Amino acid sequence: MKPAPTLSPAFLQPAGQSLPTPLLALRSERGTGLADMPLPTRKTENWKYSSKYLKLSDEMASPLASDGKPSASLAAPGYKVVFLNGVMMPEASDYPDLDGIRIRSFSDLSDDEATELAARLDSTLDTDAVQMARLNSARFEDGLLIQLKPDARLDQPLFIVHEATANASGSAFPRIFVDAGRHSQITLVEEYMSTGSAPVMVNTVTEFDLADGASVTNVRLNTEGESVQHIGATGVRQQRSSRFESHTVGFGGPLRRHDLQVRLEGEGAECKLNGVVVTQDKQHYDNHTCIEHVAAHCNSEENYRNIAADTSHAVFNGRIHIHQDAQKSNADMNNKNLLLSNGAEIDTKPELEIYADDVKCAHGATIGQLDKTSLFYLVSRGIGRREANVLLTMAFINELVEEIPVDAVKETVQLQLNQFFDHTFQEA
């Protein structure tokens, strides 16, 4: 029997040493634990449809250089923090100086602060289920710590811009930890972009820890280039009466993977997860979500939509786990998928695991093509076939696009969709 592939030792070589000693120790410990780590295969259940797209060469193990200058990104009103290949660029950033809000890079923390942070990193994620997040913990060179004291509110969105320069093969490991105090509020936008055409890997981890009554909105936009393999994980822990809202928009590549895990640990906590994925050519995108209803009287709402054209491949795996003590839980999950060609493929797997008896739970999944009757109706009234295709496709996802709470992101998504439509639909 052929042995299972393991992570190359090249990925465990020491990275930059600018972090405080407690974080260096954590990184070393995580790296030791990755020795001989099996890589996902088709037999790995949560990588069943994506393992064949994961290509980790030894050349990709080298850290991408962080001594260049970032390019332009979202021109948006609000605060901004820029990361270049996983390292914070203070000179390109403009972050708030407000009472109750502290934003610092990991490398600027004192040893005491770094010790406290090290004890909390990975606490929001099931790293057994999100295997590649462990690699980030062993390789991050820098990170961003966002702390909101009780009742602190950020008056504008905070944009975190992650740029990968794919001028040579390598990898980057961005890291964010958000500590939202009681009744605090923040809107955080993560933008992932790239330049260059060399094969690179971007492995990201973002963690949110919400105290009682905290409200966090997270917008995640991925527009990286065709040479970038992106493997991301987002972990969320919520306490009593907190609210987390997620808007994930992704455009495909050689491999796009995002794991989103939410734990509702306090009574009255709520989460809303929206996602839009668009793939074309031979691209691949895989969204895995998991909502853990741990406490009673919690609500979750999830709505993901995928569009696949040409010979591309999209995956959605959504899991809702209602624990025994999570009585009076309300959970709703919906996944709709649109195939624009006979060669495209979409795999969907909604899961409900319920151990409480006084709950309201529902899930649904559909896969289909554009309705020929609706298309005929539009064309018969003088609308061009291409425009009719665009109208019907846009109608399929427009509800979720319009719910994005940041106008600059919404405009960028619309521009990207227009490029997708130009590529996919040709005038007959």
Your description of this structure?
Residues 168-396 form the SUF system FeS cluster assembly SufBD core domain. This is Fe-S cluster assembly protein SufD. Pfam families: SUFBD_core (PF01458). By secondary structure, the chain is an alpha/beta fold. It has one domain (20-371). The chain is 18% helix and 39% strand. It contains 6 helices and 20 strands. The chain has a 10-stranded mixed β-sheet with strand order 2-1-5-8-10-12-14-16-18-20, with helices on one face. Strands 3, 4, 6, 7, 9, 11, 13, 15, 17 and 19 form a 10-stranded mixed β-sheet that branches. A hairpin with a 2-residue loop joins β1 (79-84) and β2 (87-88). The chain is globular, with a radius of gyration of 21 Å. The mean pLDDT is 93.
